[in-house]
Amino acid sequence: MATTSFGDQLHDLWRTRPARLSAEGKIGGVCAGMAHRYQVDPALVRVAFVVSAFFSGTGIVLYLLAWLLFPQDNDEVSGGESLLGRGRSSQSSGSSLVLVAALAVAVSVFTPIGIAMSGSGMVSLALMLLGWWMLYQRTPVAPPLPPSAIRPPAGTPPPVAPATQRPAPGMFPPPPAAGTAAPWMPPAQAQGPSGMPIAPPPGPRPQVPYRPTDPAAGTVAAERTEPPSWDPLGVAPFAWDLPEPRSAAAPVAPRPRSRIAPLALGLAIIVTGILTAISLGTGADWLTPGRIGAIALAIIGLGLVAGSLRGTGHGLLVVAAPLSVFVILATLLGPVDWSRFQDGAGERNHVVTALTAPVTEFRLGAGELVVDLRQVELERDATVLVSALFAEVVVMLPPDTASRVTCSVRMGEATCPPPGLSRDGPPDDSPILTIDASLLAGSIEVRNE
Questions:
Q1: Is it the case that residue 118 has pLDDT exceeding 90?
Q2: N- or C-end of the chain: fewer Cβ atoms within 10 A?
Q3: Do 40 and 99 share a domain, yes or no?
Q4: Which of these three, 293, 316, 335, is where a domain ends?
Q5: pLDDT digit string (tens) for 383-400?
Q6: This prediction's pTM
């Protein structure tokens, strides 16, 4: 690479950007093209895009952007450049406009850019761009495109298979008469009157030289009197003019096992253990399971990047896949008070006839929780707290009662009255029943009976 400054390297990176391999790709050929351009495993590139997609949708936005800006196969320009009038692309203008619309929707939904971008999205974007830069530094010269990506120019007729040609007269000598030995065959192949081969006489077999001819030139090649190395007994002199067979290729020495995978895995385990001990010992709120898993996943990701530069480390994918699922679930669920499982599990049906205390609470760890308040007659304001971890929660409100309902579900669905005070039947000075229902995962239903 002849570039010297950072700007020249950026220009060369863009000039030698990957081409989308439509014949080898799964969707748009972006990952297959990057893998071929930088000589890495396509599975590694696909995993990088999938993992980054879970962090503010960065992987989705980058994939759509690469689909729009990378040329297809052996095109000179990309679909996006073709829309700007910089050349012709095999991708239609309609497809390019659809990609532009999809990119705009992805940016508006995931907000991966601008001031609204979250910290995880910024880190994911920086890691993806850094990985592209490191791959370019490793392979600055683009390899030739695979045969599946090379298309003939427009207007080129398809290749026609050559017709079978008959041998020219005189190319092959006539067969020998019965009972005579052919001049190009050893005596051992001579035939008798009955057509059966005649056994050779005892003793050493005479060497009959073979003199190949060139019918086109009318010349006779130099005769060979010594058998080649592949016919030491001289039993096939009619084939002595064939080239010598190639020697078997030397066995390839096995590559030494890389230490990148075990080092990355061991470092991730050690860091996870230290951070878990700190979290349990000090009660640090910021060291949640999701953040600890994200740190371990970052170490595994660095190991994958370092291994890809040397063509090793693919075994870390077995750890990265389930760890990514854990980080995603831990991020969605957030901090969980696992001591809530002490509230029990199963089916609980509470029929309440009166609310004597200002605040009444019903809790459950996992199962089904039903709170029946239909027989309650309020004399003063009261609050009912209903909480569970993994359950189906049903709350039945008393009729003709002013109520204020709040529902909170992290993962699941909630069927509740609209927020705010509801006074459909009772007078304005009637007592108010406040329902506060919270759930980690499952469903909540608050209904009037």
A1: no
A2: C
A3: yes
A4: 335
A5: 999 998 888 999 999 888
A6: 0.41
